[in-house]
Amino acid sequence: MLDQPVSKSKCQLPLTVTGLAFSAGGARLIDGLDLVLTDHDTTVVMGPNGAGKSLLVRLLHGLIEPQSGSIAWNGEPCGPATRQRQAMVFQKPVLLRRSVAANVDFVLKLKGGSNRERLNRLLAQANLLDKAAQPARALSGGEQQRLALARALASDPEVLFLDEPTASLDPTSTQLIETVIAEASARGVKVILVTHDAGQARRLANEMVFIHNGAVVEHSSADTFFKQPASKAARDYLAGKLVI
Amino acid sequence: MQDFAEAFRLAFGLVAAMDDDLVEIIGLSMRVSLTAVLIAAVVGLPLGALLATVRFTGRAAAVVIVNALMGLPPVVVGLLVYMALSNAGPLGFLQFLYTPAAMIIAQSILITPIVAALTRQIIEQMNAEYAEQFASLSVPWHTRVAALITDARYALLTVLLAGFGRAVAEVGAVIIVGGNIAHLTRVMTTAIALETSKGDLALALALGIVLLAIALAVNGAVMSLRAGAESRAHA
Ligand SMILES: Nc1ncnc2c1ncn2[C@@H]1O[C@H](COP(=O)(O)OP(=O)(O)OP(=O)(O)O)[C@@H](O)[C@H]1O
Ligand SMILES: [Mg+2]
Fold first, then answer.
1. Whole-angstrom Cα distance, residue B26 to residue B9?
2. Burial level of A173, CB count in 10 A (0-12/13-18/19+)?
3. B31 within 8 A of B107, measured Cβ to Cβ
4. CA distance B78 to B74
5. How far is the CA of A163 from the centre of ligand 2 (A)?
6. In this complex, do A94 and B130 lie within 8 Å of one another by their Cβ atoms?
7. pLDDT for residue A206
8. B2 DSSP assignment
9. Distance of CA A169 to the CA centre of its chain
10. What is the pLDDT of residue B18?
11. Residue A4 burial (CB count, 10 A)
């Protein structure tokens, strides 16, 4: 049995970002970024290292405050209330010093829905059922990522941020994670995925957002983006050239 | 004065025979210091967790004070507790002076700052690591603190053991507020001080041997806890 579908009526879309700016250490890291997301299907964010992708998803999730500009989820300003209905898998997941099962159960309890059946289903989906009793921190990198994803889904999010969830994972783990993401997306979860893997972007993305120097330089359908990228930065990035 | 080797022989004899006086003194020592650790845990763990997780004005000053109190001289604590509990003092009505209760109070005051300060350090470090994940999950404050204490349980247990080690080995405070009364407030350290001054080195040595054994056992427990935690990837 699958989790309940997310109803589109209570969805947090559209996301409206205007004039977003975030500076640290004297540098403007997010620099007047505008973005509107209306599409319920998966949005993939790409861009060179240091472009500001991780910062952007942190800002959208309300983990850090911008110096200026605004973020609204279906008209509601980004903050604790909007964050409560979202989940995030970080680029470097932080697992609790507990068993694999306890990591997922922690979130299930938090959201008031702890039950064995749901826990086992989430673990099975991440192919971690046989490791349920093991300490989470003893898992391999790929297993940790799978656990982080299972834990994020345990909170039943309407929006799921994934920051390079398959970097340094083997093809099997990557495929497993992509399957879980696709299933969540099919249930109506809005997925915002950061990746450097063009193949993965093609497989999962409905639309693409390309970030360069803290701003959106391209926002288009995946088809358009991969067939004829409009910006030089995206063309160079996809061709494996240095993006200046 | 007895011969040195003879003193050791008698001492080991007392330990081996489980001499009644010896057992009574050790029992009281353990009861007093373990109770003090319990009180220090009940007060110090939440206090340390509070200092580690809540931002409030004066927090930096509070941290400095708690850290400084870790070095409280036992005799000063003894003096202050004596003054509070003496008939003229604000807590004189309790009639605690020269009872084990007074000794428990003194040792609790001595080790609570140790427990609180080390707890703060441990929890603060872990909180920095967990903070963003907890923020993402919208974990409420009380759940956050409970989770941090749970996940730091091995490190915190070693803190409590360190507190116990300090309490059980301390002499300055308990001798002032307990008075080293035979069969009532005589503990290992005060008995050693008294017997040595009387020249009964055998009993003093026997107690010293037990005290050393306890210190070794506590350290051994700390080390195996740490090793166990690491092997279970909890560290
Ligand atoms: N708190 C901070 N203080 C100062 N600089 C920061 C801070 N956080 C991020 N940066 C800088 O902001 C830039 C963007 O960082 P970000 O992590 O968003 O990059 P990214 O696009 O996710 O890159 P990658 O593909 O390598 O993950 C980097 O140059 C980084 O050094
Ligand atoms: Mg990043």
1. 20
2. buried
3. no
4. 6
5. 7
6. yes
7. 94
8. -
9. 16
10. 87
11. 9
Closest-lying ligand 1 atom to the alpha carbon of residue A25: 4
In contact, A43 and A205? CB cutoff 8 Å: yes
Judged by DSSP in three states, B110 sits in helix
Taking CA B132 as the corner, what is the angle to CA A45 and CA A155, rounded to the nearest 5 degrees?
75
Instruction: Give SS3 for B161.
Output: helix
Predicted pLDDT of residue A149 = 96
For residue A17, which phi and psi values (nearest 5 degrees)?
Answer: -115, 125
Inside any domain, residue B187? yes
Q: With contact defined as beta carbons under 8 Å apart, do A223 and A44 qualify?
A: no
DSSP-assigned states of every residue in chain A:
-PPPPPPGGG--PPEEEEEEEEEETTEEEEEEEEEEE--SS-EEEE--TTSSHHHHHHHHHTSS--SEEEEEETTEESSHHHHTTEEEE-SS----SSBHHHHHHHHHHHTT---HHHHHHHHHHTT-GGGTTSBGGGS-HHHHHHHHHHHHHHT--SEEEEESTTTT--HHHHHHHHHHHHHHHHTT-EEEEE-S-HHHHHHH-SEEEEEETTEEEEEEEHHHHHHS-SSHHHHHHHTTPPP-
In a domain, B103, yes or no: yes
Query: Which residues constitute the domain of residue B29?
Result: 19-234
Cβ atoms of B185 and B103 closer than 8 Å: yes
Q: How distant is the alpha carbon of residue A191 from its chain centre?
A: 6
**Nearest chain B alpha carbon to A156:** B137
Q: Are A211 and A47 in contact (CB under 8 A)?
A: yes
Mean pLDDT in residue range A7-17: 79
pLDDT at residue A1, as a whole number: 42
Nearest-CA residue for ligand 1 atom 9 is A55
What's the rounded Cα separation, in Å, for the pair A94 and A100?
A: 12
Residue B44 sits in a domain whose CATH number is: 1.10.3720.10
For strands A207-212 and A43-46, give the pairing.
Answer: parallel
Q: Mean per-residue pLDDT for B124-139? A: 95
Supply the pTM of this predicted model. Answer: 0.85
The answer to whether the CB atoms of B136 and A90 lie below 8 A apart is: yes
Q: Is residue B45 part of a domain?
A: yes
B131 is a domain residue = yes
- Domain count of the fold of chain B: 1
Asked if this assembly's ipTM is beyond 0.95, the reply is: no
Nearest CA to ligand 1 atom 4: A24
pLDDT digits (tens, 9 = 90+) for A134-154: 999 999 999 999 999 999 999
